[in-house]
Amino acid sequence: xxxxxxxxxxxxxxxxxxxxxxxxxxxxxxxxxxxxxxxxxxxxxxxxxxxxxxxxxxxxxxxxxxxxxxxxxxxxxxxxxxxxxxxxxxxxxxxxxxxxxxxxxxxxxxxxxxxxxxxxxxxxxxxxxxxxxxxxxxxxxxxxxxxxxxxxxxxxxxxxxxxxxxxxxxxxxxxxxxxxxxxxxxxxxxxxxxxxxxxxxxxxxxxxxxxxxxxxxxxxxxxxxxxxxxxxxxxxxxxxxxxxxxxxxxxxxxxxxxxxxxxxxxxxxxxxxxxxxxxxxxxxxxxxxxxxxxxxxxxxxxxxxxxxxxxxxxxxxxxxxxxxxxxxxxxxxxxxxxxxxxxxxxxxx
Length: 349
Prior knowledge:
Distance between the termini: 49 Å
Strand order of the largest sheet: 3-2-1-4-5-6
CATH class: Alpha Beta
C-alpha cells in the first residue's frame, strides 16, 4: 500500500561521533542528542536541514458524539474549525510563534464550511455511531488513507520536510479509545479517559458505549482481543474520518522521508495504526508530548517512544507538536553549528 524506505542507520557511527565530539561532555545534552541523531538519520548525516514546517489539523465529526460523551456538543467541531481559520485557537498561537505554517482539513464534518482556508477532503457528514454500526465502509477508509497521503505529498513537493499532525472532532477520544483497545487488547475501562473533562456519570456512559463498540466490532470480525486483526477493518469499524486521514498522511510523510511530529493521544493512536500498516514508518516519528489522557502511556510503551515534553496537556489540535518543534530546531542547530573540541581548541573532556 505504501512504499516506505526504512530510516538509514548505516551512518550511525558517523552521526554519533559528530555529536560526541561537540564541545560538551558526552551525553550532556541528554534527550536532545537522541533527537539530533534521529533527525540526522532521516535527513542525512552531514547537515540537518528543516524546511517548510507545516501543521496539518484534520477535523471530522463522530456519530457517537450525539450520545453525549463530551462536555461539548457536536457543533463545536465546526465552530472550532472556524476559530482555526480565523487564527484564534491555541494551535494558531503556537504555530505563529514557532514559524510553522498551518493547514486545516475538513475530513467529514456535519456541515461543509465554504472557506478558502479549509481544505475540503470530506468523506461524509460525520461517521456512524460506532456503538451501533461501523464508523465507515472499508472503501471509505481506503479513500481516507489515500486523501491524507496525497495531501502530504503535495506539500512535500513544495519543500516541506517536517509535518505536525493535529485533530479536531467532538467524540474522537471515544473512537481513539476503541481503536487502542482493539489494537492492543485493552478493555474500555483501561483506555477511556475524561477527554476534555467530563463528569463521573458521563465517563461511565462513555466507557459503556466504547465497550459496546468493541464488542460489536468483535462480533462482526470474529476476532479475539489478542488475535491478529486487520488494521483497515478496525479503522473502518471504529475510527474517525480525521483519524483515518491522519494515518494516511503519516504514511505518506514517511514515504517522502519527512519528519513526523506526533501530538497527543488521538494522533498517537493514528501513529500506532500507521505502524501496524507499515512498521518502517516508526523511524520517522518524533513523539512530542505525554498527554494527560490516561491511556496515552500505553501507546508510548507499545511504540517504545520517549516524548519530548510533559506539560500536562490534553488539548489536541497538534498543540504539543507545535510546542515541541523548537526542540527540533535546537537539535539541528547544535548538530550543524556547535564547534567540536578540535575546532575550538578545547581539551576534550
